Amino acid sequence: MVRKTNVVEQQNVRGGEGTVEFHHILKEEELYGHGKLYAKVVLKPHSSIGMHQHVGNTEPYFVLKGTGVFVDNDGSRTEVHPGDVCVIEPGQSHSMENNTDEDFEMMALIYNEAAK
């Protein structure tokens, strides 16, 4: 099967600012209980995803385009560029900011922590 991505635009994601587009690659049920989200995420200029915690899952980001600021669990701020990977461990919090006049694009995968 071949299909187009499902694009959903959201405002103020997780208490952040502005507009974020989610280009859903797989539906949650297509992750077969292993995860919650697999999508290209586009932060429009001067937009952000607010600080939020991952409990029982993790969400690595892979930067595709633009310059962003990754805010890590400890509050540290790191400028990120294409090819960078942002790692969020289960239980940690994070946010992402686009403070530029261009779109910022990344791949995001929310997958479940392994059962112990």
From TrEMBL:
Keywords from the UniProt entry: Metal-binding
A matching Pfam family: Cupin_2
Signal peptide: none
All residue ranges annotated as the Cupin type-2 domain in the record: 41-108
Record keyword Metal-binding present: yes
PANTHER family: CUPIN TYPE-2 DOMAIN-CONTAINING PROTEIN, OXALATE-BINDING PROTEIN
Protein known as: Cupin domain-containing protein
Lineage: Bacteria, Bacillati, Bacillota, Clostridia, Lachnospirales
